[in-house]
Amino acid sequence: MILWAVLIFSFYGGANFYIASRLYQGLSHFFSNINIVIFICIYTFFALSIFIRFIPVPYGIRRFIDTIGSYWMGIFLYLLIFFVIADIVILLGNITALFPGPIPQSIRFWSFLIVILLTAGVMIFGKYNAANIQHVSYEVSIKNNSLSEEIKIVLIADIHLGVSDGERNLPVIIREINKLEADIVCIAGDIFNDDFFLIRNSSAVMESFRSIESKYGVYACLGNHDGGSTFNEMVNFLEQSNIKLLNDEYVIIANQLVLAGRLDSRPIGGFDDLKRADITETINTKLPVVVMDHDPSHIKDYGHEYDLVLFGHTHGGQIFPVNLLTKSMFIVDYGYYRKDPTSPHMIITSGVSTWGMPIRIGTKNEIVSIILPLCS
């Protein structure tokens, strides 16, 4: 663990030194008298804003630093990618004699300007893309169908209230949910973001949750960010918001299907005294079984006794190229999956909000509709 921490901080420090030197070099073309001490101090604040948020400070200051840090994560990543690409192009141009040596300052200047414009463009597009909520639909024919009516499940996950735009976008999210006329609304974890008191206006959030329209109710399971020192406040809040929390528990919906919710296996800060348990033996029914389980790394846990399992957590990678990493980490990181005809149907949503960086590149915020049709 210590070795990994050293490697991560070494990489981050080295990457920031590289970016800072390229920024200073480029800015010197515009501001010949730029004060290097002031530049280093400003850059260091942005570089450390990702970590300063963990220092105990009043919530108002913490939210401000969280906002700066979240944007800086995206800016840092794309500055690094584009500067590396620019320097590789310049190096190859020099090796192939496409560029004269030594490299003219004009080429350095234009490479800097292109990197800045590309990074700004990516951030603006990513912010715009993250503000759009899209609808995705699936139709799932479950085995041993005992339904007396068609059931529509609306699935969301990863709201991350208290950071990013989750709280600001919640009224829009609820409005889009209500357009779908759901029979059941499922929230597959990460409703909060580690600390209940990061929410700016909990009364307004509660009012929004209470306005969800669903024939058979709103149900949720806990994600890895739904724990910590304010866990009890989170649980009480959900209860008062008319959201039924299923902690390795299940309910029977209208004598037609079973809906279960699992505790996350790796909560940040823990779920008080609660630990993930095996609920297979407690579900003794011939009714179809639908499960909410935040983390799709548990896909292998579900066999033929389940019909449909709903996941979140991955955000589909949220941004390129992180989505390439999540594709390699999980059996499936987004969309529909079924191993074989006897296995349960799996649906992994990319979430309805963002985490960390308030942008989306190559992925989408979504609300998922799942139709369980009657047997023909």
Core attributes:
376 residues; alpha/beta; Purple Acid Phosphatase, chain A, domain 2; 6-stranded mixed β-sheet; 15% strand
The H/E string reads HHHHEEHEHEHEEEEEHEEE
Strand content: 15-25%
Helix content range of the residues, please? Answer: 25-40%
| The CATH homologous superfamily of the largest domain | Metallo-dependent phosphatases
**Structural Rg:** 24 Å
Broad structural category: alpha/beta
| CATH level 1 class label of the largest domain | Alpha Beta
Return the CATH architecture of the largest domain. 4-Layer Sandwich
CA distance, first residue to last residue: 55 Å
CATH topology of the largest domain: Purple Acid Phosphatase, chain A, domain 2
How confident overall, as mean pLDDT?
Answer: 92
- Uncertain stretches: none
**Total number of β-strand segments?**
12
Total of domains: 2
Helix count from the secondary structure assignment: 8
Task: Characterize the largest beta sheet: strand count, sense, and whether it forms a barrel.
Answer: 6 strands, mixed
**Inertia-based shape:** elongated
